[in-house]
Amino acid sequence: MSPGEVDSLKIYTLSEDYTGYDSPFWASFGISFLLHIKSGEGEKKILFDTATDSEPVLHNMKLLEIDPHDIDLIFLSHSHFDHTGGIAGILKEIGKDEVPIIAHPEIFNISIMPEPYTEPYRSSIFLNQGLSGKNSKVNIEELGGRWYLTADPMNLMTGVMTTGEIKSGDKVDYERVPNIDLLDLKDGKLIPSVIRDDISLSVNTQKGLIIITGCSHAGIVSIVKKAIKITGIKNVEGIVGGFHLLSAKSGTIDQTIKDLKNLNVNRIYSGHCTGFEAEYKFRNIFSKDFERLSSGKIITFK
Questions:
Q1: What is the pTM of this model?
Q2: Residue 238, domain member (yes or no)
Q3: Count of domains for the chain
Q4: Which residues pair with 186 in a beta bridge?
Q5: Is 172 domain-assigned?
Q6: pLDDT tens digits, residue range 88-142?
Q7: What are the DSSP E strand ranges found in 142-271?
Q8: Which tens digit of pLDDT belongs to each residue from 252-264?
Q9: Helix or strand run (H / E) with residue 74
Q10: Is position 169 within any domain?
């Protein structure tokens, strides 16, 4: 069933791994976007993820002349620290009670990465959990956050819907294997993580769906297919976010691009965990319809 249609969508890249050349914006590991959405029923400002730390996000908000107090709700794509780490600091600046936080019920999972692949993590293991310590469930509630946890698709406003959990049966074959090696700590046991809490957003514009992702641990092709399935809208104007292809084999990257083309995806805006090889290939195939994300980048759809 169609979720309706928005009048306009403006995406502010509040934080990203990259800033571009000679930029006043700060880069930070992870992703954070501000979605300014207008529709017939009014407008909302949705904070999508909070990067690793609040300081770069708030610095870039100031340069973009965004007042944190204007944020209406927070959407968390998954539990990992580079998408949730800044939430407490940002909630302090929002300074309001009853700020809705939309996430999957497993957002508080404890994940362990046995072999860290990035600096500055040098130990043999580290916890890949952003919602602990100052970002714990209780502390976030004390700062005004109110949790709305569901694995099902959810309408946030006219034209805006979460994908909900991308279950195994909804995934294409080559995306059923997780694109990152993690272990979940459950009931005192370490089990391979399937990252069930990875969810995304779809916004229906006049030109078609805009799909916003965090790391696409559920698989970017599977995410697009799920968004099309639950909205009934086949036109995909663009995908914005990280695709987590940085450790993917060349054949997987090629198949991903081919499948996205076959789904008639028009534009690609990617960064963070997408990886250089994948970005290079996206640029070759999508040409001017591919853009690299960077802190401070503004993308407008009308």
A1: 0.94
A2: yes
A3: 1
A4: 189
A5: no
A6: 999 999 999 999 999 999 999 888 877 655 444 444 456 677 788 899 999 999 9
A7: 145-149, 155-157, 160-162, 183-186, 189-192, 201-205, 208-212, 236-242, 265-271
A8: 999 999 999 999 9
A9: strand 73-75
A10: no
